[in-house]
Structure of HTH lacI-type domain-containing protein:
Amino acid sequence: MVGIRDVARRAQVSPGTVSRVLNADETLSVTDSTKERIYQAARELNYDIKKRKYNRAKTTTIGLVSTITRQREIDDPYFSELRLSMEEECQKRQFNLEQYTLTDIFKKTKMISNLDALVILGTIEQRSIEKLLVYNDTIILLDNPDIDLAVDLVYTDFSKVTKKVLSLFVAAGHQEIAYIGGYNIDIDEQGNEVANENEKRLKAYKEFMTEQGLADKISYKLGEWEPLEGKRMADELLSERAANFPTALLVGSDPLSVGVYRSLQSAGKVIGQDVVVSSYDDIEIAEFLTPNLTTVKVNAKELGKAAVRLANEKIQKEREVNVTLSFPAKLIIRESFVPD
């Protein structure tokens, strides 16, 4: 059986230093590189940090790190529903759920190692996840499928449902199809936002248009994920493509669609006739827009519950392999786009 002394030899430090680091002794003064070396040695030797004798009686604690801004959570209830479903599932299992920002986590590496699991909501850079894995190897990524690391993944299959909607557009005779959405935002360990176009819905849109021989008709606008930005982007599209405005719009979220509706209707466009619109989320307002909004329903509640369930399986040593759970989404047909 691997013990403290084995870890100490591998990390080239004293057993006492290993014990104090793994016990998160705040009075110990050692460099971050030494701490990382100790945690790395423990992982390489399969030394079970979380099940140390002094730690067995404590309540299971899961850390939730969200990269979603408070304003975006207010604008898009999808994210608040994810978080609330995790809270409910943890309460049901009598787990503690502690919430942190990404910058908090990187400033408190001792705390990371004492968490039984870490769930990260939103997209962060792969190199940042690699650093977190040094301190805690039970990580579940929620809504961040493009990571190739030894972690569990839980996400909605946006690619499949996006191509389904676009296929219905084409089947209804539309070829001038544009996308309005938001930037993908990666967060680094300093909390800096790194905006890029590596967003799941946009990627699927580009792939589909290319596969259908419509690459020359690819047209999209990106901005912040909020209603006013939806209006701004639709206004720009109306100005730039006045002579050949798209007959179909795919919008990245229902909150963005609120702004898109305002822009189109102000310009005299009849939604559902002059231009069809489909969106994502199926939040409450979608049913009450005029015309009511065709949109993709995402089961945020089940995603959040699944993240906690996967964390528990790893904590209880029920499995060693990493799991990827891809949840389907359902297209809700309403008046803004009725397929043929």
In short: Residues 4-51 form a domain with the 434 Repressor (Amino-terminal Domain) fold (CATH 1.10.260).
